[in-house]
Specification:
GO biological process, one term: bicellular tight junction assembly
Number of strands: 2
CATH architecture of the largest domain: Alpha Horseshoe
Family: Belongs to the TBCD family.
Organism: Wuchereria bancrofti
Strand content: under 5%
Largest sheet: 2 strands, antiparallel
GO cellular component, one term: nucleus
Distance between the termini: 55 Å
Shape: flat
CATH topology of the largest domain: Leucine-rich Repeat Variant
Helix content: over 70%
Radius of gyration: 40 Å
Strand order of the largest sheet: 1-2
Oligomer: single chain
Mean pLDDT: 79
Subcellular location: Nucleus
Low-confidence stretches: 439-458, 735-766, 779-783, 1087-1095, 1171-1176
């Protein structure tokens, strides 16, 4: 007994929660059978070793569970109650620091369990002197604990004591405020419910003291800030007590070495002083003088360690400090310069939350400058520091913060007049310039931060423009009284309207909301205000400005003469962008407006004039010109300029657009490589689209010019005269035939005349699906012709740009700005290769020209965006549907890719290198797995290569990785299951270097007591189960499964009746089946001991009741019966005599109901086989296979079980079976029913199944012997 007790007491300190819980239960059971003095000794041991200073979280948790169990069972001595209450009060606030967090939630939860148990065990008189302490502590835990489950546990314990003891002061009233649901929201408990409970005098000081002693210095910053705000509101409950606590506990925290305690002290002090001021309580001036020194003390830490945790903590603290105390401390005591320095530091912080906090603090602080001298000082600082900084700062966050700062400047300062203009006009002019983003610094940032992928996820200056617009929404209504500002206001409104139409969803939403605020503010002098109100106000609150559908509403601005230029500028950026949804929404809205005026030459000319102005004004700005040309192509493709088709020169604006585009030819001699290359590519594409001439001389010149354009290296630098000669050569070749300008004009006319099928006019009521498909096939507006020449050009272009990028990276390794352009070009080349994904018949050419080698090399590129683009291309090239269209070319492509180590390259250079926390890189990994899946679908024989080249090991790690389920994790589990089922090499490698079975079982253990949360997670779980089943087909893995306690886990899943139950049954079938399953059967019967009976109690209910299809959607009733019968048959075959006798005894229970059930199932299976037996007798092998499909395998398992029971079990089982067969068939001879199936089974056993064959023959002999006797 001593050894057992020692083991259980040690388990109370185990690191596993379930072991500690089991130990506490065991202590309760054992002490119930021990004498009182021995029980007291055990309790002393628990108190001594679980609740000392060196005990950690696990020991305290186990001790609390044990004490709660003893109290619940009534074995807690009354004389030990003082010690228990002392421990209880400590446990309710227990925390064990662990770096940047702390353990202890389980201890506090167990402490609430002790309170709950005490209420059930002791009389009210026994607990009377501890009631106040316990009540206050439970209320504080229910209000302020970080974890919701602990708050609810404290609420439940409070309710139990109120209900059973009735001794808590104001118990009923408080209980209604801190019930189970009320304490679910942390902010509400801190800021609302705590103030309600503090009205009861017994709890007031306890709540305040708890916040100051424990929560102000809590490790979680959110808790500290909430506690400070709660103190601010609680000051009204007991101001005198709060004043005492400020001097006693809060002031010392300001100088603490712990940054967490220092931050908590600063925010609590500021909030408390603000709360006391609101209550009318003033403190000594000396205290205020000491407090006002805090920003001076903190500023050096904030400034010198800008990226440290301490700096971030103190910056947030300063925001709260300045916001709270700017209106509390007398202005004469405040050192405004020091406070302003801290505030300016926070305004320019890289963290957006800190900048927002600084804005809130600035609203209060800048009110100190509303007098004349302060306003002059602030105006001077804004003009000399802030305005230049918002334009010329070298850090983007500095500009964003200053823009936000300008939005909180008091109106008294904004409306100051200067000699030339009002001060507000200067700010408006600066903010408007900021929104346009046209400074040289903006261009430098954009170039340096540009991604090599066209789909840029974050636009440079987006946050800056949003902050500037929010500031204007505040400043414009204040400044409208000055007549000189009217023009500035109109300009600002135009810029905001343009931003409300541009491509970035967040910016578009911000601009629309700013316009709504401006219109609601009553700002006067807005041009065409009625149309703006119709767009932004009428039903605008229901508009999702992030959705592409908003462009239809914004298209009304294109009909406004005043705002047309700015609206069209925004539409061009959006319609010519690369984001599919935004581009489509803006393009449809723009083309719809143009379509409405297509019949009016006058209105079209006005539109084209505006379009031309945008083109001329933004010449050289790549951000505008590229989308503009894309938008122009959409307009021409839609045939919306037909009224100018007969005479294009009749439109001056159209002629200017064509002339501007024709300037590209002169760029062949430009000193900038990118301009030369773009000009050459555009001219090349124009010549290629030209119709073939009947004149052979002209055709030869055209071919010569195409070769010259494609072979010239337009990107080389340092030889400008060379390109002058080349441009002259181009002019000489074309001089005698056709002018280049005419080519471009002809190209534009070709685009104008290109037919386009308008399927939107097709009615679904009168049109068949075949008509719609035919219309789509005739629609060649977006068709891309790909031939051998195109393939060669695209591949050569990719190789050249890849080589160039590699050279630039080697040459300028430390200067990304210099090689970024080459990566953009490389990405463009990769995107152009997507055209080949629809032409599998050209894959052979793709391989012959060496494209596969280049693509595999790019998988190791340093830029993850390039890697993602290549993987996306490979995913499209290897799409199964595409591969099946051209099998010869597809086979060559797949074979060459795999032979060149595609799988190994994907794993080592791409998948393992990419960061899945970044969405684009996670998508790239998903596409890489899709490539592997496509390869395996087309060539299943490549499964071994996937195992050998490292993919299998990665899939195993990723599929069993802890954490939330995502698309890649589920895909990994699917491929892992596929490989294990496809190749024996994967089953061997599963346990070679790492214990793969242990990883799989740990991943499955999650579903032991919890169902999957979604259909995807359910599929993931099934993939893991299938992987385990496939692995068990390799005999040596059975032992690994046994050593990893897989049997125990499957048995627990069967008992829990969760969704994993049927899959666990399937795994158990695989583990026990065949000769290789003997060790698992022996373990199940002989070694598990007591678990054996629970195992049989788990299996036999499944054996008796097959679930219906409605109840079990994860497997069919036939599959369920097959697995159960197979497991029982395996146990009977592989177990020793003791185990078999235990199984036989189960069949004798309850008047042989299990025998009855098996005979019934035998009849049903026989009938089913008879119905499905439709083949001729001479097709023996096919007949046997069909019978197996119809349920013969399950019938064989049933017959094996019945034969073994009737020949070896108790006589009653045999007699019962004979009687049932006699009643159902009129023939009670067992040999007639069982032997034919057994003989068929024995004949079809494989040559390696000698042992099973001998066993079957023995069963046949025994059954025949029964009938003879």
């Amino acid at each position: 007994m001593e050894v057992v007790l020692n083991t259980i007491l040690e388990s109370l300190r185990d690191r596993h929660t379930d072991i500690r819980w089991a130990g506490a239960k065991g202590i309760g059971r054992i002490l119930s059978r021990l004498p009182k003095h021995l029980a007291s000794d055990v309790l002393c041991n628990i108190i001594k070793f679980n609740f000392n200073l060196r005990s950690g979280n696990a020991a305290w948790h186990g001790g609390c569970l044990a004490v709660a169990e003893l109290a619940r069972r009534g074995f807690l001595p009354l004389e030990r109650l003082p010690d228990i209450v002392k421990i209880l009060l400590i446990a309710l606030v227990f925390e064990e620091p662990q770096g940047h967090h702390a353990l202890g939630a389980s201890v506090r939860d167990a402490a609430c369990y002790i309170c709950w148990s005490l209420a059930r065990t002791f009389r009210p008189v026994d607990l009377e002197k501890y009631i106040e302490q316990i009540a206050t502590s439970l209320v504080c835990v229910a209000l302020f604990d970080r974890e919701v489950n602990v708050r609810r546990a404290a609420s439940a314990a409070f309710q139990e004591i109120v209900g059973r003891q009735g001794t808590f002061p104001n118990g009923i009233e408080i209980l209604t405020k801190i019930d189970y649901f009320a304490v679910g929201q942390r902010c509400r408990t801190y800021l609302e419910i705590s103030c309600q409970i503090a009205r009861y005098s017994m709890y007031t000081q306890g709540i305040i003291e708890h916040l100051i002693s424990f929560k102000i210095i809590h490790w979680d910053e959110e808790i500290r800030l909430l506690s400070a705000e709660a103190l601010h509101r609680l000051c009204a409950s007991d101001p005198s007590f709060v004043c005492a606590q400020v001097l006693k506990k809060l002031m010392p925290l300001i100088s603490s070495e712990s940054l967490i305690m220092r931050q908590g002290g600063v925010v609590a002090l500021a909030s408390t002083l603000s709360g006391l001021k609101r209550c009318g309580t003033l403190l000594d001036e000396e205290l205020y003088e000491n407090v006002t020194q805090i920003p001076s003390m903190v500023y050096p830490l904030c400034k010198k360690r800008t990226h440290s945790l301490g700096s971030k903590l103190m910056r947030r603290a300063m925001n709260v400090f300045i916001k709270s105390l700017s209106s509390v401390i007398p202005k004469g005591l405040i050192k405004t310069e020091d406070w302003l320095s801290c505030l300016e530091l926070n305004f320019c912080d890289e963290n957006e939350d800190i900048r927002k906090g600084a804005c809130e603090a600035g609203k209060s602080f800048f009110k100190l400058y509303i007098d004349s001298s302060g306003a002059e000082f602030l105006m001077l600082r804004i003009r000399q520091v802030y305005l230049p900084q918002i334009i010329a700062a070298k850090v983007e966050s500095d500009r964003e913060g200053i823009a936000a700062l300008l939005g909180v400047i008091p109106s008294e300062v904004l409306l100051l007049s200067t000699l030339s203009d009002s001060f507000a006009a200067e700010i408006i002019r600066t903010l408007t310039f900021t929104i346009s983003g046209s400074s040289a610094l903006d261009a430098t940032w954009a170039y340096g931060r540009r991604s090599c992928v066209e789909a840029i996820t974050r636009d440079i200056g987006r946050v800056l423009r949003e902050e500037a617009m929010r500031a204007l929404a505040i400043i414009l209504p204040l400044a409208q009284s000055y007549s000189k500002i009217v023009d500035r206001i109109s300009e600002a409104v135009c810029k905001i309207i343009q931003q409300s139409i541009e491509k970035i969803d967040a910016t578009r939403e911000c601009a629309a909301l700013v316009m709504k605020r401006i219109l609601q503010s009553g700002l006067k002098g807005i041009q065409e205000e009625e149309i703006l109100r119709k767009i932004y106000l009428i039903n605008g609150s229901n508009m999702d400005w992030r959705s592409p559908s908003c462009f239809k509403r914004l298209a009304l601005l294109l009909k406004s003469s005043y705002y047309r230029y700015f609206a069209l500028s925004g539409f061009i950026i959006s319609a010519g962008g690369v984001t599919e949804s935004t581009m489509r929404g803006a393009s449809d809205a723009l083309l719809s407006v143009i379509s409405d005026i297509r019949g009016s030459r006058q209105e079209l000319e006005i539109f084209l004039q505006c379009f031309t102005s945008i083109l001329i004004n933004n010449a050289g700005l790549l951000r505008v010109t590229q989308p503009l040309l894309r938008t122009l192509e959409q307009i021409l493709s839609a045939q919306l300029l037909q009224c100018f088709e007969a005479d294009p020169d009749s439109s001056p604006s159209l002629r200017k657009i064509v002339d501007r585009v024709a300037i590209v030819v002169r760029n062949l001699r430009s000193r900038y490589p990118i301009m030369r290359r773009n000009a050459a590519e555009q001219l090349y594409e124009c010549l290629v689209s030209e119709c073939d001439s009947s004149n052979e001389a002209e055709r030869n010149k055209r071919v010569e010019l195409l070769n010259l354009l494609s072979e010239t290296k337009w990107n080389i630098t340092g030889n400008e005269q060379y390109f002058v000669k080349i441009s002259h050569s181009v002019a000489e070749i074309r001089m005698s035939s056709i002018d280049v300008t005419e080519i471009l004009r002809a190209s534009a006319e070709v685009k104008l005349k290109r037919p386009r099928i308008d399927i939107s006019n097709l009615s679904t009521a009168t049109t068949t699906p075949e008509d719609i498909l035919a219309a789509l096939e005739r629609d060649e507006s977006q068709a891309v012709v790909v031939d051998e020449a195109t393939v060669k050009r695209i591949v050569m272009q990719l190789e050249k740009r890849c080589l160039k990028n590699r050279e630039m990276r080697i040459k300028y390794g430390d200067e990304p700005a210099k090689f970024m352009e080459s990566e953009i070009e490389l990405n463009e080349a990769i995107q152009e290769m997507h055209a080949l994904a629809t032409q599998p018949d050209l894959y052979e050419l793709l391989v012959d020209h060496g494209a596969t080698t280049t693509l595999l090399q790019l998988l190791a590129h340093e830029n993850s965006d390039v890697v993602g683009a290549v993987i996306n291309l490979l995913q499209e090239l290897t799409d199964v549907d595409t591969l099946n269209e051209g099998e010869d070319g597809a086979a060559k492509l797949i074979d060459v890719l795999v032979a060149d180590q595609l799988i190994e390259t994907l794993v080592q250079q791409s998948i393992e290198r990419l960061d899945e926390t970044i969405k684009d890189e996670a998508d790239a990994i998903h596409n890489a797995l899709s490539v592997v899946e496509n390869v395996l679908d087309f060539r299943p024989s490549f499964s071994d290569i996937c195992v050998e080249q490292g993919l299998f090991a990665w899939l195993l790690r990723r599929a069993t990785q802890r954490g939330a389920l995502d698309a890649n994790k589920m895909f990994a589990s699917e491929l892992l299951s596929l490989l294990l089922q496809s190749t024996e090499l994967a089953r061997k490698r599963l346990t070679e270097k790492v214990d793969g079975f242990d990883l799989l079982l740990r991943a499955l253990a999650t579903y032991k007591r919890h169902d999957p949360g979604s259909a995807d997670e359910r599929e993931h779980m099934e993939n893991l189960f299938n992987a385990v089943c496939a692995a068990l087909m390799y005999a040596p893995n059975r032992q690994k499964f046994l050593d990893g306690e897989g049997l125990q886990l499957m048995n627990l899943m069967l008992r829990e009746r969760k969704q994993s139950r049927e899959s666990a049954l399937k795994v158990l079938d695989y583990a026990t089946n065949g000769v290789e399953g003997k060790s698992n059967c022996a373990k199940f019967i002989d070694i598990l001991g007591e678990l054996l009976f629970s195992g049989l109690r788990t299996i036999f209910p499944l054996f008796m009741r097959t679930p219906s299809k409605q109840k079990r959607k994860d497997s069919t009733p036939d599959e369920h019966e097959e697995h159960v019968c197979s497991v029982l048959s395996s146990l009977l075959r592989s177990c020793g005599e003791e185990g078999r006798s235990r199984i036989f005894s189960k069949f004798s229970e309850h008047e042989y109901e299990k025998v009855d059930q098996r005979v019934d199932r035998f009849d049903a299976r026989q009938a089913n086989l008879t119905q499905n037996n439709k083949l001729s007798d001479d097709e023996i092998e096919q007949l046997y296979l069909d019978k197996l499909d119809a349920g013969l395998y399950t019938l064989q398992r049933i017959i094996l079980i019945l034969a073994d029971i009737c020949s070896s079990a108790m006589l009653g089982c045999r007699n019962r079976a004979v009687k049932l067969f006699q009643m159902r068939t009129g023939n009670g001879k067992l040999s007639k029913h069982l032997v034919p199936v057994l003989e068929e089974y024995e004949i079809n056993l494989g040559a390696e199944a000698d042992e099973e064959r001998r066993r079957t023959r023995q069963l046949i002999a025994r059954v025949n012997g029964i009938d003879k006797n």
